[in-house]
Write a structure and sequence with these properties.
The complex is a heterodimer of chains A (318) and B (214). Chain A has 318 residues and is of the alpha+beta class. Chain A has 12 helices and 11 strands. In chain A, the strands form 3 sheets. In chain A, strands 4-5-8-6-7 form a 5-stranded antiparallel β-sheet. Chain B is α+β, with helices and mostly antiparallel strands. The chains are: A alpha+beta (318), B alpha+beta (214). Chain B: This is Aldehyde dehydrogenase iron-sulfur subunit.
Chain lengths: 318, 214
């Protein structure tokens, strides 16, 4: 690990200012992803701003009848919140489908949105990776790509956004609230938060340097049946091959977002409009797919997983 | 036959005295490292942190890069907590901080100012075992024992999480009381790997403790 200086701050504005003051600074909260990457020297911040003392650890009700989730609320606390379990069950289900109990106790809402890809070529510093080292190429395309993306990917990068929580947040139309170094705040719809890779896969979100996530807001409850279904190579503690977050009415209409296939939680308007027609919805979700030989199975898997979710919504065994 | 004195030296004692020998030199290892690094483009930053470890206050002056795991093992000399993968994948380093289990390898020690840390040494002692430690012994919840401290810290926390109503991936309902069933225990323990494969016995040890508590 490269040496770094460290400071604690007590407010979001102080955090953003501290990051702007020090060159090469990063915010740290749970640290479960950042420290892992720092040990491998994939992340090499010169300065860490510890934001755990900024008080952003509450879940409060908004005037619009939704919830505001502080950026520091842990995955465990969020999944266990009575209001979330009752009104946003897909979010609780998505969170407990990811990581391990130890990691969920530490991982935060803000940090989880910034979790970096788990592409093995991003992690292996001996390999070419445009995301880790811009311009070095992509070893994944000709490599082991079973786990990697099929839609929204580019010539430069076929990595996926790996998380589960954000897939549920996408289907719930969550909004990310931030503060910039100059103190201004903004609200970013989750669907616009993660960038598609294009030619710059090292830039993963629309956040500006030094901009800090302060909260994630949920609109008022949607009702309906909430389902998160995750397909993976191992039954627990593994990243998704394909996951589906769904909020469905009794007639099978509703909305879905897909995890494990793209640089961001994948939601397509035409797919939502096509429901309950699984084939048409899956076609819309995988339209324009450019899979490798090794991950082409994900196209069929999206349809099958979606079919399983629809069956579950109808009360049949998935 | 009497054992010569030198056989009474333990492996752990040798390791500890080796470290002490280094520190007793005219120059501290920290300073020596900084001075002998040719491209010292980044200065090593030191930071003081105080926490309570197993009920005892500890104040440590640490390189900011030190993980909670390394602070426990190398600085406080509590070697019960084990380093497996050092990347949060195996769970051998699991400790309980402020009542919640975490991977101590993926947490900076300096971020634990004022925290309450419980390691395997703080759960029980050889003379007065924690019920979970006793159950692991009774049910053979280990073979080589390397993952065991992490397994036990995790197991103790899992039963608390179930009692607190924290849902898991296999919980049929998100609301209402959670069950300490076998499938729940297995799911919730998936962040602790045992290469010897003592899983079924670990689940039985946990079931016994859960049953006593219920």
């Amino acid at each position: 690990m490269k040496p770094f200086s460290y400071e604690r701050v007590s407010s979001p504005a102080e955090a953003a200012a501290a990051a702007a003051r020090a060159g090469g600074a990063k915010f740290i909260a749970g640290g479960t992803n950042l420290l892992d990457l720092m040990k491998l020297e994939i992340e090499t911040p010169r300065h860490l701003v510890d934001v755990t003392g900024t008080g952003l650890d509450a879940i409060t009700e908004t005037d619009e009848g939704g919830l505001r989730i502080g950026a520091l609320v842990s995955n465990t606390a969020l999944a266990s919140d009575e209001r979330v379990k009752r009104d946003y069950a897909v979010l609780s289900r998505a969170i407990v489908a990811g990581a391990s109990g130890q990691l969920r106790n530490k991982a935060t809402t803000g940090g989880n949105l910034l979790q970096r890809t788990r592409c093995p070529y991003f992690y292996d510093t001996n390999q070419a990776c445009n995301k880790r080292k811009p311009g070095s190429g992509c070893a994944a395309k000709e490599g082991v790509s079973r786990q990697l993306g099929i839609v929204g990917v580019s010539d430069a990068c076929i990595a996926t956004y790996p998380g589960d929580m954000a897939v549920a947040l996408r289907v719930l139309d969550a909004v990310v609230e931030t503060v910039k170094a100059d103190g201004t705040t903004r609200a970013i719809p989750l669907g616009e938060f993660h960038r598609l890779w294009g030619d710059t896969p090292h830039i993963e979100t629309v956040l500006e340097p030094g901009e800090m996530i302060t909260a994630v807001t949920l609109p008022k409850p949607l009702g309906g049946t909430h389902i998160y279904h995750k397909v993976r190579d191992r039954r627990s503690y593994a990243f998704a091959l394909v996951s589906v977050a769904a909020v469905l009415d009794a007639d099978g209409k509703g909305r879905v977002a897909i995890g494990g296939i793209a640089p961001r939680p994948w939601r397509v308007e035409a797919a939502d409009a096509a429901l309950p027609d699984v084939k048409a919805a899956a076609r819309a979700l995988t339209q324009g797919a450019s899979p490798t030989d090794q991950n082409a199975f994900k196209i069929a898997l999206v349809e099958r997983t979606l079919a399983g979710v629809m069956a579950k919504a109808r009360g049949e065994a998935a | 036959m009497d054992q010569p004195d030198y056989f009474s030296v333990s492996r752990r004692g040798v390791l500890a005295s080796g470290a002490a020998g280094l520190a007793a030199g005219s120059i501290s290892p920290q300073v020596a490292f900084a001075a002998s690094t040719p491209v010292a483009e980044r200065a090593i930053a030191m930071q003081t942190v105080s926490m309570r470890i197993n009920g005892k206050s500890e104040t440590l002056e640490l390189d900011t890069r030190t993980t909670l795991l390394d602070a426990l093992r190398e600085h406080v000399k509590l070697t019960g907590t084990k380093k497996g993968c050092d990347h949060g994948q195996c769970g051998a380093c699991t400790v309980i901080v402020n009542g919640e289990r975490i991977n101590s390898c993926l947490s900076l020690a300096v971020m634990h100012e004022g925290d309450e840390v419980t390691t395997i040494e703080g759960l029980g002692t050889p003379e007065n075992l924690h019920p979970m430690q006793a159950a692991f012994v009774k049910h053979d919840g280990y073979q080589c024992g390397y993952c065991t401290p992490g397994q036990i810290c995790s197991a103790v926390s899992v039963l608390k999480e179930i009692a607190d109503g924290v849902p898991s991936h296999v919980s049929a309902e998100l609301t209402g009381p959670m069950e300490a069933s076998n499938i729940e225990m297995r799911e919730r323990m998936s962040g602790n790997i045992c290469r010897c494969g003592a899983y079924s016995n670990i689940a039985e040890a946990m079931a016994e403790v859960a049953g006593e508590r219920a």
